[in-house]
Amino acid sequence: xxxxxxxxxxxxxxxxxxxxxxxxxxxxxxxxxxxxxxxxxxxxxxxxxxxxxxxxxxxxxxxxxxxxxxxxxxxxxxxxxxxxxxxxxxxxxxxxxxxxxxxxxxxxxxxxxxxxxxxxxxxxxxxxxxxxxxxxxxxxxxxxxxxxxxxxxxxxxxxxxxxxxxxxxxxxxxxxxxxxxxxxxxxxxxxxxxxxxxxxxxxxxxxxxxxxxxxxxxxxxxxxxxxxxxxxxxxxxxxxxxxxxxxxxxxxxxxxxxxxxxxxxxxxxxxxxxxxxxxxxxxxxxxxxxxxxxxxxxxxxxxxxxxxxxxxxxxxxxxxxxxxxxxxxxxxxxxxxxxxxxxxxxxxxxxxxxxxxxxxxxxxxxxxxxxxxxxxxxxxxxxxxxxxxxxxxxxxxxxxxxxxxxxxxxxxxxxxxxxxxxxxxxxxxxxxxxxxxxxxxxxxxxxxxxxxxxxxxxx
Length: 459
Known about the structure:
By secondary structure, the protein is an all-beta fold. Helices cover 2% and strands 45% of the residues. The chain folds into 2 domains: 2-196, Glucose Permease (Domain IIA), CATH 2.70.70; 205-458, Neuraminidase (6 Propeller), CATH 2.120.10.70.
């Protein structure tokens, strides 16, 4: 059987791996023993799971050297989000008989990572650029697999090598067999180990404020304690005060215009660096974050105690929240599908039917009691709302980043903000969604409105 599989894979030009239980002999995915060239420095690869999650890394006899099977220490692995270990271009996203649904990312300078046995078709496509920590799929058991897990590999100039995470070698090197190949690493089967993910998003960046009544002139948000920086931002207005929330190294900070933008740590920690939402309801400020795939809620009325809402399995890179008639609504992406949960239904996370969306861009607003959700599908912004059964319609806004999205309503007019080529663009429902360059630079954006003035916060 092995020779047949090998011949099929040789014809395909790609070897696909198998997995998770030490009873199935396997062939590894993406490597033939090609001559190594001078690869660039090793990227700062991170464990391919949300910030703070603990995963078991293991191999087995005959698996193939350097191949790693990963299972979640927190319970069932099936459906858990898989994140990019490092930024790069999607080299392949699709189906292979051995690997099932899988993704290969090209990080440049000779480095690639492979992610096999996903539960469903990946939400990314070949040629798409993804950021470190961006969701690229969910754990499954498709292809030649005997149980839910992620089969993972790092390759250097086309040859498998020991995986490193957060600057530390994984220790998974040998499968104990001299008969697998093309590589052979002597020694017994590498012992399993548990690793906690530090895949907490991009580095914090300076936050800039720009207002529509000032020609979108971008000014740095800074206070007595220094500049306000973050890898994710959320903005709200409360009683005429502008409030900006940011995430830095898993911690949530709050800065307000009436305190000179003094940036204060809320006490919220251990959260994803790429997902943040905030709303105000009856004078109380609420902040929503993702911790290990679970949505948490903290409020100014409970001393910012970060409580698990019970909403689970969500992307650690997309989150939106709105309030309608005093009810808090939270929108998340689970396996490329938008889900809605609200405080009046005990945070039961329901499938909206909006599917095939980026797991790193999500926005929501309410207009006259109607809930609107904005997503990115293949670089195009789509709009769905509660009054049309969440039918996801193409707005015509195209060529946008799949990692940045914001929306506000001003006097009943809907405004959507996107990033194209590092510049924030604005489109409005009363101009046929014509997407205009604001000139504001940034890779992430949030927005609020104050007295009819539109205000952007970009980082």
